Amino acid sequence: VQLVESGGGLVQAGGSLRLSCTVSGTSASVLGWYRQAPGKQREVVATLVTGGDTANYGDSVKGRFAISRDNDKNTIHLQMNSLKPDDTAVYYCYVRHLFRQYWGQGTQVTVSL
Known about the structure:
Helix content: under 10%
Order of helices and strands: EEEEEEEEEEE
Number of strands: 11
Shape: globular
Strand content: over 45%
């Protein structure tokens, strides 16, 4: 199983970034993105239940971020708009299938003032 993330980088506050995660080797019942800032616990950013395409978001990103998937390319996206310095973190792609869960290697997002 491989989860390969891309799209992180440095952006000014108010800007946008789009993260992508290509998944191979597993099906998925839940897809998602988590993040971890220095000195903080990993927190959920967004999840998507594939059965009904139901999305849920962490309170701090609601209305600014959007999770989506491209089934043809086995790819998960996270569109991040109106970025804030508090969004600075390593972002991890996540897949759960049956009783197993998988994580990407993480991609750094840095938002400057």
